[in-house]
Design goal:
By secondary structure, the chain is an alpha/beta fold. It contains 13 helices and eight strands. It has a domain of 163 residues: Alpha-Beta Barrel (TIM Barrel), CATH 3.20.20. The structure holds 2-phosphoglycolic acid.
Length: 257
């Protein structure tokens, strides 16, 4: 099987105004000066910057992603944004089912599944997030929670070409805590086996499974080389171009070593 090209996606969450676009242009410059072709780079700014980012990114290989979409293409849904609108703005991917949306907005697996289908309909890659809470982990329920979320959130139509899974333990997000590399390897291996049951081994073997939760320049080297980890979803450390670049650079190390 061909090696999977890793993806590192920056999730800016509800951070950033027009002045933050300077971080994107810095990132772009750093990647132009010292490219890291081993990794695909994506940035998911807030929706208000989606139409402005393409100007900054024009001609670069940084991919633009969005953070959420509505399941429907259009309609009376005040404040919502459809996958088609995101595609029109220049996004190529959309995060769905982030635990912050599951918690803040009561999003269910069924809704996340419908959002992933909306992404496919609009020609976007769906980045589907799963992960257990601290209480679930301490009860020993990590695998059952992850399996339930995958079964409910990943559509039958999911393919390696249109879907990325992000494993984000809720307790690791924004906390500075991370699972051990052995724990990450165990959950990622399990995710790949569940995807195999759901979609067949051909799709599962080629699908990117990202780790997310407190990925920083200091721990990226140990987390990103874990078996079955095909990149990262990065929150806080994606807001500053230098930190984000330092995480990406983990993939250039073999070449420069
Ligand atoms: P963090 O967020 O890197 O700030 O922990 C990750 C995420 O929620 O995607």
């Amino acid at each position: 099987m061909a090696a999977i090209r890793p993806l590192v996606a920056g999730n800016w969450k509800m951070h950033g105004t027009g002045s933050s676009l300077v971080e994107l242009s810095t990132l772009r410059k750093r990647l132009a000066q010292a490219p890291i072709p081993e990794v695909e780079v994506m940035v998911c700014p807030p929706a208000t910057l989606l139409t402005r980012a393409p100007e900054v990114l024009q001609g670069s290989e940084i991919v633009l992603g969005a953070q959420d979409c509505h399941p429907l293409a259009s309609g009376p849904h005040t404040g919502d944004i459809s996958a088609e609108m995101l595609a029109d703005a220049g996004a190529k991917a959309v995060i769905v089912g982030h635990s912050e949306r599951r918690m803040d907005h009561g999003e269910t697996d069924a809704l996340v599944n419908a959002k992933a289908l909306a992404a496919y309909r609009a020609g976007l890659t769906a980045i589907i997030c799963v992960g257990e809470t601290e209480a679930e982990r301490s009860e020993g329920a990590t695998m059952s929670v992850v399996k339930r979320e995958l079964q409910g959130s990943v559509p039958e139509e999911a393919r390696a070409a249109n879907t990325v899974i992000a494993y984000e333990p809720v307790w690791a997000i924004g906390s500075g805590l991370t699972p051990t590399p052995a724990d990450v390897a165990e959950v990622h291996g399990f995710i790949r086996s569940v995807l195999g049951q759901l979609l067949g081994n051909g799709q599962s073997g080629a699908m990117r499974i990202l780790y997310g939760g407190s990925v920083k320049p200091a721990n990226a080297g140990e987390l990103l080389y874990v078996p079955d980890v095909n990149g990262a979803l990065v929150g806080g450390a994606s807001l500053k171009a230098d930190d984000f670049y330092a995480i990406l650079a983990v993939y250039g190390r073999e070449r420069t070593a």
